[in-house]
Structure formats: C-alpha cells, structure tokens
Amino acid sequence: MDANNSKSITNEMLMEQFMEMKSMIANLHSEIESLKNPVDSFLTKWIDTFEAMRMLRVSRRTIDNYIKAGKLKPVRINKRNHFAVTEVNGLVHVPESPKIKSYQEDIRSMLQQVAKMDELGEDW
C-alpha cells in the first residue's frame, strides 16, 4: 500500500509542477507578444497634432486653444505634441440631425396642446 500511496503522491506533485510550468510559459508568451512591435501599440493609442486636427476638423490655432484650456493634454516626443486617441475622440462633435415632422404630426401635437389648454380653462 505504501508503494501505491507514494506513487500517487508523486503523480500529484508532477501534475502540480506541470501546471505551474504551463502558467509560466503562458506568461512568457504574453510578454513576448507585447514586445513584438511596440510601435504599433503606440500609434493606435497616440496621434500627433496634424492627425488630431484632421479628426476634429479644426485649425492648428484651435488645437493650441484646446491645450491652453486644458481640453487636450499633449505629450512631447521629439519636439512634437502627441495626444491620446481617447482624449481626441471625446472632443469630436457630432451634430444632431434635425427631426423632420410631417404636417399631420404638427397638427396632432397642436391639437393636443389646445385640448390641454381647454381642460385647464382660464387657468392656463
């Protein structure tokens, strides 16, 4: 019985060591993947002034005003400003399209307002 117990303990220990090594390999693999091309991750998270101007459809002077107002926080790299893409996306203004109503909808809403005024009587 001792031989079986010692054998099962060793198998459990081997399995534990195997799982530990497997997790270490997975960690190393993820670290290697992150080091493959650090420039791509930088470019997807940061843009330069001219790209920000293009995204926001504004002039260089407006970008400078945004920086002075604290709306954009530049990071200086090689004498050039770079901005976080998320920060620039937060400034993108998308105008709402006007709601187009038909004459029938306008007449219905006016009649509803008139009906409310009639209910209130002289108090409106």
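The record above closes out task 2.4. Task 2.5 opens with a second protein, given below.
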Amino acid sequence: MKKEIAKALEPVVLAMGYEMWGLSVTQQGNSIKLTLYIDSENGIKIEDCERVSHQVTHLLDTEKLCDPNYVLEVSSPGFDRVLMTSEHFNKYLNEEVKVKLKWLVKNRKNIKGLIAGVTEDHVVINENNESYEIKYDSIENARLKV
C-alpha cells in the first residue's frame, strides 16, 4: 500500500515545486497515519506543509488510495534529517546517524555511528569499531546526528 500511495503522491508534490523526501505509513489506533516528508532548496515553512496537505488530502479522498479514516501529517525532513531510503543514506555517507531498530541486531536496538556503506537492501553503520549491517525494513527510525 505504501508504494502505491507514494507513487500517486509524488507527481502532485513535484508539480507544486517540492521534493518528496519520503512517506511513512503507520497504524494509529483504528486509523492509518501517513507522514509525508517534503523538502525544497529554500527550506520548508508551515505554509508549504499546509499547501501540500490540502492537495494531497484532495487526491487521497477522490482517488480512495487508503482507508478513509487516515490521518495525514506533512512535514520537512528536519534539521536532523530523517533517513528512509538507500539514496538518503548514500547522500550522507560517512556522517553520524542514530538508528532505532524494530528488532535486535547483534543484541542492539539503538545504534549511533557513522554510515560506512550503502547497498540497495541494507546500510552498514560503524560504532566503536563494530560494524552493523542493517536491512532497511528493520529500521524503525533513522536520523542524522546533529
């Protein structure tokens, strides 16, 4: 479902002059929470989020892309950049990152370290001379460490 929604939303976001940084889909009670991250060279202001939210809500409601009981949040990736894709991790190679995992990797659920390598299906984080190979689908949240 996430890929279909993202595919439908991206042209709308691009046509409005923004980059679609990513989409997060989570369960929130009896509804689905969609968090759409947008970016631009000039940064993102609350008015930008409101404009995109209005257009995206219209598309979601008319195209019935998800359960009608959805909650939409439009946000910037933030100063501490949320990282969601291999492209995001690759863009910040050798930068420090904080990763919260859905399940344990080498008995760890939280890892802070340098992005040492990126492939299509996983990222390598080095922390204190230890390497962690992490598949993207096991990442709950990843942000640049500021």
